[in-house]
Design goal:
The protein is α/β, with parallel strands linked by helices.
Length: 375
Amino acid sequence: MKFPLRNSAFFMAACCLFAFAPAAASAGDTIKIGVAGAHSGQLASYGLPTLKAVQIIAEQVNAKGGIHGKKIEVLSEDDLCKPEIAVNSAKKLISDGVDAVIGHTCSGPTSAVMPLYKEKSILVISPSATTPGLTKDKEYPNFFRTVAPDDAQAQVDVDFILDTLGAKKIALLDDKGDYGKSFIHFAKEQFEKDGRAKIVLEEGITQGAVDYSAIVQKIKRSQADVVLYGGYHPEASKIVTTMRKKRMKTYFVSDDGIRVQTFIDVAKKYAEGVYASSSKDTTSNPLAIKAIEEHKKKFGSEPGEFYLNAYTAMIVLVNAIDKADSTELSAVAKALRSEVVATPMGNVSFDEVGDATGIGYAVSKVVDGKFVEQK
């Protein structure tokens, strides 16, 4: 039975245990789904939630007989969010015969591997790679994502800094990586177009440095009202801690690269008051509540950042394969673009370049050790 998951009530009744009709698939036939991303190392808190989301849904689908009689086989590759490792991970997944990939986690590695997947006509859905060019350049018709791109995220942060914080002097920092540089590039364009604030400092930092006192001193001398940082939590936590130890009250605003509990765990009390953008909070959505409870039951913990994005990516992929009755790229891509699917992140479909509709950003603030979305 093929079905478009257009009705939220139906989807709730199905409880994510998809009722696919058993087809005459030969014994041992599988649909191979690759999951590539940071599964260890400093950025594992971004990648592991994706792997767990895929595992949960794969088990549910397989318990109901699979997709048209074919069980899902999950193949996991750890790329540490490093482009050179990601290339090897992609080659391994390709050699293992994957039908589709959920991942990669970070924008740089994703950009590095997309030519490989494109050459082999393998569909990729990332829950977290936000570099706009992955879709807007229209170079990769096999790429989709369940997260909004950096230009949209930057606009949300810039509007918040100007309209809510009322800042007049801005310090822009990035970690020199594809993701951080892209985010800050779009933020700078938007600040300059608006004209209400002056950029008083622009700096790229070295990833993995032990000490960021020199850059913090530059921020202090610039008299910036706000630091807008593009990058990930390991560096951000060190910068924020150094700023607060120097009693600097400068606002610190960043992207979804720091909006993880790990940032708070590392920065501890110094994380209080930090702002970060991320996908809008949909945890009150009944499907999100159910997805989170499934994670707690299976893994004994709260899911991390991008879990709901990944859960959504897997739902839409399974639905598209079922609708297409195929894993062939053009058929699955057509189904992704034509279907509106009820997910933990709302009703989701994809535009012609692979960006998800119905998914946007909001800014959260660390309050009492938790990120709280600002209304």
